[in-house]
Specification:
It contains 7 helices and 11 strands. By secondary structure, the protein is α/β, with parallel strands linked by helices. The protein folds into 2 domains: about 5-65, Beta Barrel (Ribosomal Protein L25, Chain P), CATH 2.40.240.20; about 75-240, SPOUT methyltransferase, trefoil knot domain (Alpha/beta knot), CATH 3.40.1280.10. Bound molecules: S-adenosylmethionine (SAM). GO terms for molecular function: rRNA (uridine-N3-)-methyltransferase activity.
């Protein structure tokens, strides 16, 4: 169960959100039962349920460990906005595979355009809910954050500022396969730039290359945007050790 860090003291954890219903009425756990609580920041707390009250549960902390489910590498996915369900799908699967953060990007050929800020904010809120439930389902130790969309230039600047080993899968790249780049770096933090349905423009690719982003091939077949994201992420997890 994910619980906010402010509900965690040295000795006990207070659960007072929707988890109460899940623990009480769905799982029908009792006092004395063991549960694992995660603080969304990579710590797993092995706890014993001490009290089940109206609207809250108190659990006593038995031990704390660093979540073993977290990968050794950090990967930020810069995902071009793609149509509705596909974006949801990428977020869910990327969280399962081990992404650290998802930054939607608005690129020249995005069919999905930025909506008014209120609408966009509620979309991002929904994406974060998808990320949280995927993290819970796959036993992640942290909940990867999905943030508001930014532009292509802003995303390249973000990768530079955060010293990410930045990779841009590009279907016209014929020379360099993704494994070549991964096998020649010691980096532990990566950024992946994925184009929309219509791909990146040549200008966008040029700008990225100019800023030190590595263009890579994912093979001789054209992958859909959502497939390309997951293939790239899975390659990083595989090559760099989970
Ligand atoms: N518009 C392109 C076309 O029809 O030739 C396809 C773009 S593809 C659907 C979307 C994104 O997936 C691309 O911008 C790229 O980032 C990535 N991608 C798809 N296939 C790839 C491949 N074989 N190698 C590298 N990147 C690929």
């Amino acid at each position: 169960f994910f619980v906010n860090a402010q509900n965690i003291s040295e000795t006990e954890i207070i659960i007072d959100d929707e988890n109460v219903n899940h623990i009480k009425n769905v799982l029908r756990l009792q006092t004395g039962d063991e549960i694992i609580i995660n603080d969304r920041q990579g710590h797993d707390y092995k706890c014993i349920i001490n009290a089940i009250e109206q609207g809250r549960i108190i659990a006593l902390i038995d031990s704390v460990t660093h979540s073993l489910a977290e990968p050794q590498v950090e990967v930020v996915l810069f995902q071009s906005l793609i149509k509705g369900e596909k974006m949801d799908w990428v977020i869910q699967k990327a969280v399962e595979i081990g992404v650290t953060k998802i930054i939607p990007i608005c690129t020249t050929r995005c069919v999905v355009k930025l909506e008014n800020p209120k609408k966009m904010a509620s979309k991002v809120e929904r994406w974060n809910k998808i990320a949280e439930s995927a993290a819970k389902q796959s036993g992640r130790g942290v909940v990867p954050e999905v943030v508001l969309p930014i532009s292509m230039s802003e995303s390249i600047a973000y990768a530079r500022t955060n010293a990410l080993c930045a990779i841009i899968p590009y279907e016209k790249e014929r020379e360099i396969g993704i494994r070549k780049v991964l096998q020649s770096t010691e980096a532990k933090s990566f950024g992946i730039f994925i184009g929309p349905e219509g791909g990146f423009t040549e200008e966008e690719i040029e700008e990225a290359l100019h800023q030190g982003v590595h263009s890579v091939s994912l093979g001789n077949r054209i992958l859909r945007s959502e497939t390309a994201s997951l293939v790239t992420l899975a390659n990083i997890m595989y090559e760099m050790g989970e």
